[in-house]
Amino acid sequence: MPITLIDTLPKFISPEEHRNLVASTPASFSDIPPVLRHKEDNVSVSLDPALDAFSAEDAASGSLYVIESHLVFISATGRGFQVEYPAITLHAISRGEKGPSIYCQLDDSVNAAQDAQPQNEEDDIADMRELTILPKEPSSLESIFEALSLCASLHPDPGAEDEMDNDDDDAFVDAGEFETFNGDADEEFSEVGRVRSDFLNNSRFAPY
After folding, report:
1. What DSSP letter does each residue of 46-72 carry, written as one string?
2. Which of 21, 84, 136, 208 is the most exposed place for a label (fewest CB within 10 A)?
3. Judging by DSSP bridges, how do beta strands 192-196 and 179-180 pair with one another?
């Protein structure tokens, strides 16, 4: 399952520690822990549909960790969850009814067995979950968004890569393709700011 309950924070290192390890030429680069790209305290989250065994109290306050391997939330209660990046089909800065937040759509069918994959549009919708991240400091939204975009780019959608192989002209995009969305109340994103959906438009970028 792409979203997993945890009670222990995954191992990670800082960007500075990563630079030092790489400069020392380790025996195996694969043994280097993932990098923490952003940490935000005083964060609340909401999941729709709710996650079993993760209560409203768990979601009320905690810390968000944008790690290169997973997106992680650890509650003040000690419980938390981690999300695999390929499951995040869309993430956006939203200024909707819940307040300034990061809105994500999660595909619960990612990594499911082939015979368990959605067979029609209704099944596909049923496998979607919404995650809303609400930091106490709205000014942190941009930093969270950028870190999330960078980490997501390290985990490209295999299906998107196959399509890119068939069209080399689409292999690279520039920053000008990021757009501002100003919807109205009749549209799906009524008050969404910048939107990035790597899995819908194949606009992955290479951070290094």
Report:
1. EEESPPTT--HHHHHSEEEEEESS-EE
2. 208
3. antiparallel
- The partner residues of 194 in beta bridges, in order of sequence, read 180
pLDDT tens by residue, 164-203: 555 555 545 454 544 444 544 444 443 444 454 444 444 4
Give every CB contact of residue 134 below 8 A, 6+ residues apart in sequence: 43, 44, 45, 46, 98, 99, 100, 101
CA distance 65 to 107: 20
Residues ≥6 apart with Cβ < 8 Å to 197: 89, 90, 91, 92
Q: With contact defined as beta carbons under 8 Å apart, do 144 and 133 qualify?
A: yes
Number of other CB atoms surrounding residue 17 within 10 Å:
14
pLDDT in tens, 45-61: 999 999 999 999 999 99
The span from the CA of 164 to the CA of 97, in Å, is: 37
DSSP for 102-139, please give it.
Answer: EEEEEETTTT--GGGS--SHHHHHHTEEEEEEEESSGG
Strand partners, 118: none
